[in-house]
Design goal:
Number of domains: 2
CATH architecture of the largest domain: 3-Layer(aba) Sandwich
Oligomer: single chain
Distance between the termini: 55 Å
CATH class of the largest domain: Alpha Beta
Radius of gyration: 19 Å
Structural class: alpha/beta
Number of helices: 7
Order of helices and strands: EEEHEHEEEHEHEHEEHEHEE
Strand order of the largest sheet: 10-9-8-11-12-14-13
Number of strands: 14
CATH superfamily of the largest domain: Vaccinia Virus protein VP39
Amino acid sequence: MQPPPSLLRPDTLLFIYYLEGAIPAHQVFDIEHFIGNWVEDDFSFLFFTQPAQQQVKEILSLFPATRLLDQYEMTYAQWQGGNVEPVRIGRFLLNPTWIKASPGKNEVAITLDSGVVFGNGTHPTTQACLEAIDIACAGNRVKTMLDLGTGTGILALAAAKLGCEKIVAVDYNFLAARTARINVVLNNLEDRILIANGRAEQHTAVATDLMVANIHYDVMKDLVRTDGFLRQKWFILSGLLRSEAEKIGQFLATCPVLILKRWNQDDIWHTILGITNPSEES
């Protein structure tokens, strides 16, 4: 079996097979050099570290409704959009597994293995969320957190490093959840972070000090309307384009919430930091 994604390096060759048809995300293939299966709507991406035409042909025979659309060969660095190097965002230092840059004074170091999942910290919404988490966690006020759409787990890791004691991090994509679990172990935070593979809107029933949702608008619009949303003391809503942020803002205006800060990267990506039931704050 292929070693965990944490052994991927910038020069590792990836062989990617793009399929029409969704192969179940939890499907286990006992195939050498197989990394994982990324399911997106009705399409699947199968990742290998060696050519796997015959293996993919056998997989397709198990799922008659699928067919091969295309295949790609690229390095891991190319898949991630360039050389994957240590990244500094605010006071967070994000280190890939093969480089350990030393954190400066007051910097918070996080080891991050993105695997084949996007989310190495460079996206504007991730950067805004990290800044918002730093604000919310100031003064040791956040002890519990809900991270919805966790991806690689980067936001949960950041909060745990800032002192948050109990975090549930959720992602509907099985491969993302598996990658997040690897990152929890890499950072020795198993006692603080629980990774769940499931739907975000089904995890708001329990009240927490902070809810973070860097997630698609189609999920967000229902999430803020759940009974549990107003049970979360602080909230960070991100992953929103301008028109989507306007719609969410209009709904929040009807709720007992106080918006503390907004981020607007080039008028494209929007992030909102706020608290619920501000009249109850002491």
